[in-house]
Model the fold of this input.
Amino acid sequence: MPVRPEIPQVLQRKPIKSDPGSMALVAVGFVIGILVGIAVLPPVHANPYPSLPAVAEPEAGKRLAAALVSDDPRRLASAASPQVLQALGQAIQPVAVVFEMRFLGAVERNGEVLAGYAIEGRDRKGQDVPVGFVLRIVKDEVVGVN
Done:
C-alpha cells in the first residue's frame, strides 16, 4: 500500500466558525436597507380618473349578439340600424362566420352604456379568428360600434 505524503499545516482546511457578530451585522444591514427603501420610495397616489360603474349586459347587446350568432339577416336588421350594421361589419373583419359571441363587461355614464364583446369565428380562408369590439348603447338602442 502506497504511503500518502503528509499535507502541510498551511494547506489544510479549517472549519468555518459562524461569528455571531457577523450574522448580527448582516441582519442589521438588511433591516436598514428595508427602512431606507421605504423612506425613499414615493407614496402611491390615488387614481385621478374615477372608475365607471359596471352594469349588466344591455338588452340591445343581447339581441344583436343573438342575431349575429344565429346568422339570421331579418333578426340582424331588426336589432340595429343599417349604419350600425355597416360599422359592425367593419369592426369584426376578417370574420366571415361567427361561432360564439361573449359579453366581456359594460360600464355606464350619463345614460350611455359601453359594452365589450369578443367574437370567435372563422375568416374566408378557414382560419379561426378572435375579434373584440365595443357597442355604444343609448336608451336600449345600439348607436355605435368601436
About this structure: The chain has a mean pLDDT of 88. DSSP finds four helices and five strands in the chain.
